């Protein structure tokens, strides 16, 4: 009697023909259906921005006043409006950091659009400005689909493998640094999304990089798969050097098959 044929391990390449079925869990929202809700949500932001803009003597002062806002959500939205009107070259993530407001003014202030031009541009638009509200609406759930998928994976994994442990941010949160996982990892600040351990949490069984959401767009979306491949190769080379039995997957994301 012939022994049963060994089942071939699937690689990412095996899913290429029906990749469209794996890229997202939820559909988006239709335009212009979102405009009514977008204008209702962001009109208070634009009203407050207009008030701060009218009473500010310079673009630097406008930004510092935005940074003084105590409501975190409102401050972030005002910073996004500021970036559109005043300083599109300033990194959006930097604008969100309240503690760096003066540093931003020092480093980017010379490139801020003059306050008079900002005031004129703002007054040239209706209130609420449907176009700007639609742009801000795009930020509202950005990344949510990716977080939902990661959270679902954690839930399914724990259900299927109750004797194993998986750690990492299931939704938005700090990544795991490999320097915290391996004492002698050459790049201790290398971030990963989750780590799977045996039941005693003494042996690392797998290291994971979660799906990056399709609504991020631009260079971030294009670079992420390449970055994942480089990260995976780095981890696998470290595992090989140290004799760690980490699984090696095939396909574009995990290096050679």
Could you walk me through the main structural features you see in this protein, from its secondary elements to its overall organization?
The protein is mainly alpha-helical and 257 residues long. It folds into two domains: 35-140, no CATH class; 143-242, no CATH class. 47% of the residues lie in helices and 6% in strands. The chain has ten helices and five strands; from the N terminus they run H-H-H-H-H-H-H-H-E-E-H-E-E-E-H. The chain has helices at residues 35-54, 59-67, 72-85, 92-95, 101-108, 115-123, 130-140, 144-160, 178-181, 218-242, and strands at residues 165-167, 176-177, 191-192, 194-197, 204-208. Helix 1 (35-54) packs across helix 3 (72-85) and helix 1 crosses helix 7. The chain is elongated and about 80 Å long. The model is unreliable at 215-223 and 248-257 (pLDDT under 50).
- Secondary-structure-based class equals mainly alpha
Low-pLDDT stretches are 215-223, 248-257
H/E order of the elements?
Answer: HHHHHHHHEEHEEEH
What's the Cα radius of gyration?
24 Å
Taking the sheet with the most strands, its summary is: 3 strands, antiparallel
- Mean model confidence by pLDDT: 81
Helix content: 40-55%
Count the strands? 5
The count of domains is 2
| Overall geometry | elongated
Instruction: State the end-to-end distance.
Output: 31 Å
Give structural attributes.
2 domains, single chain, two-stranded antiparallel sheet, mainly alpha, disordered C terminus, elongated, 5 strands
